[in-house]
Amino acid sequence: MSSVAYLLGLIVGDGGLYLLRYKGGRTEYRVVVTQKDAAIAENAAKMFHSLLKELGLGSKVQVISGRTRVEVRVSSKRLWQLFNDKLANLEGLAPDERIAFIRGLYDAEGDKTGRRARLWNKNRRLLDLVGSWLRELGIESRVYLDDKRHGVYVLEVPSPYRRRFFELLYPPQPPDSSGVHEWINEVPTVPARGPANPPPGAQSWDPRRGEKSLWSFTAACRCGGAGGAERRWER
């Protein structure tokens, strides 16, 4: 499912899959996307709505607006497991899912100026994997260390391939098209108040990026899709 792959790209780039444990033995399985771009967050919320409906789940989609970021949050064990399983088999994504994943990752961590095609992440293995997918599609790229202090790598697509890269991720819409993807439905979100982080007492890592605090792709693959495994973050 391309929509699942796109959301997974957003989650890996700027979000998380959390198994929260509370006092009294209660647990919560939380799927989170955080974004500075309110439009991307809104589209993600609509996609979550459509996915929950397709799966027959009644979980609520919460949209939490902070001072600098918007968090989209869904509490659902089945959804949490779906994304964990997909992440554990990331290398086995179908061709259309790979493109959708890269689009989600770029929406989360890509250069938004449009002047250069760059994608940042702390995990070089993840960027190398993305680069190999692009190479299979005839798009060259290179990965290098961009921020030595924080260990941040960047995948950059050189100018001769830049247009093809952006057209791959964001195909031009036909003149008679509304420009809205079929998976975006006008479904109201559930407003929520409070800071965009886990509630007090919950055992989880901080979902906010801080200084490039990004998803550990290596740890994710190592954990696999086990229902009792908590994902971890690397700083």
From TrEMBL:
Pfam families found in the cross-reference section: LAGLIDADG_3
Q: Which InterPro entries match?
A: Homing_endonucl, INTEIN, Intein_endonuc_central, LAGLIDADG_dom
Protein name per Swiss-Prot or TrEMBL: DOD-type homing endonuclease domain-containing protein
Limits of the DOD-type homing endonuclease domain: 7-139
Write down the SUPFAM superfamilies for this protein, in alphabetical order.
Answer: Homing endonucleases (SSF55608)
Among PROSITE patterns, the record links this protein to: INTEIN_ENDONUCLEASE
**Region of interest called Disordered, as start-end residue ranges on this chain:** 189-209
Annotated signal sequence range: none
> What is the species of this protein?
Pyrobaculum calidifontis (strain DSM 21063 / JCM 11548 / VA1)
Q: Name one GO molecular function term.
A: endonuclease activity
Single biological process term from Gene Ontology? intein-mediated protein splicing
